[in-house]
Amino acid sequence: MAENPAYPVGLRLTGRRVVVLGGGQVAQRRLPALIAAGADIHLVSPEATPSVEAMADAGEITWHRRGYAEGDLATAWYALIATSDTDANTRASAEAEAHRVWCVRSDDADAATAWTPATGSSEGVTVAVLTTEARGRDPRHTAAIRDAVVEGLRDGTLVAPHHRTRTPGVALVGGGPGDPDLITVRGRRLLAEADVVIADRLGPRDLLAELPPHVEVIDAAKIPYGRFMAQEAINDALIEHARRGKSVVRLKGGDPYVFGRGMEELQALAEAGIPCTVVPGISSSISVPGAAGIPVTHRGVAHEFTVVSGHVAPDDERSLVDWPSLAKLTGTLVVLMGVDKIGRIAETLVANGKSPDTPVALVQEGTTAAQRRVDATLATVADTVVAQDVKPPAVIVIGEVVGVGPRGTV
Ligand SMILES: C[S@@+](CC[C@H](N)C(=O)[O-])C[C@H]1O[C@@H](n2cnc3c(N)ncnc32)[C@H](O)[C@@H]1O
Fold first, then answer.
1. CATH code linked to domain 285-403
2. Class of 169-279 per CATH?
3. pTM for this one?
4. Confidence of residue 132 (pLDDT cuts 50, 70, 90)
5. Probe ligand 1: pick from 264, 278, 284, max atoms within 8 Å of CB?
């Protein structure tokens, strides 16, 4: 005879007594969701893993340091039986049955009255995957289905349109340094939901090719700006598209607030009364050195790192960077937008006390297929940049951290 399928349900456990027997790995895995559900959790177990113990120390669960005793389940709404003592598990599940307490058994799915589905959440929706029959239970398969659905919802490859009206507005999305895998999950989802994308030259441009044909993709560098500054023209384009009721993503390289003019765009949108959300991104200032095997800090070598813009030369009156003070720091200096001015920057650092032998690395097109690393010192970097034809975009790292990683591994 065919087995009846399990009936799926969502338990609302806030303030309700849930008893967990056994403080091992199963409890460790299940407790966070029970805590998140607001259950009044009582753990009965002589021992517990350090993580479970930490939950008890934090007051998230009440821990009774003893083995199971008859009566433990009498007033529970729900029970999870997961001790290594089969006899205790059997007695406890008989008690659960007698008191009509739904009960999960980690050692015997057939004897259980409830099963825990593989769950995951995205955007206020919980995805729960359950095998239909005890015989066919394959936890890895259900977990894989859960992962596929949740990942797909998060990255937008599984399109489940919202039927509530979407608020038009702009998302300033930090796209990371260039590798399409290095955008955040939230950024990727917003990109998948966009009607209009205004993108910079830097950042994960490969993702643009994956957008459906109805999405209007605008190259920020090509927006005509006539009598405006280029940035004003971009701000206007953002406002104009949002006013037409579109969901607009402003896709930026790295993080929107690291030399990204993100705040200027946010301010312009706020003045125009357009809702705006900002999604952080992985900045090239840390990730590009990392991709080339250079840590910006290293124990015993550098206890600080400073990120500076090198877009104007040190003696330029527009420069806001105190180069003489930077020359006195012992940590790492990370220079963005500095390829053209690196000769003058190196000269200034040396003139103010930095050793001419200080190692320098230039990492061009970091995290992309074209990534390239060129090494020099402060004394040689100006000539090296010319000789090796280093071109922007590049992140320049100055300091002893340049030499700490094993070469040839990245
Ligand atoms: C206008 S800034 C934007 C920085 C960006 N908001 C961030 O957080 O990474 C542009 C500079 O970032 C650096 N940059 C960005 N992406 C890079 C990459 N993939 N490889 C090397 N340098 C990069 C270069 O120094 C480039 O000139």
1. 3.30.950.10
2. alpha beta
3. 0.80
4. confident
5. 284
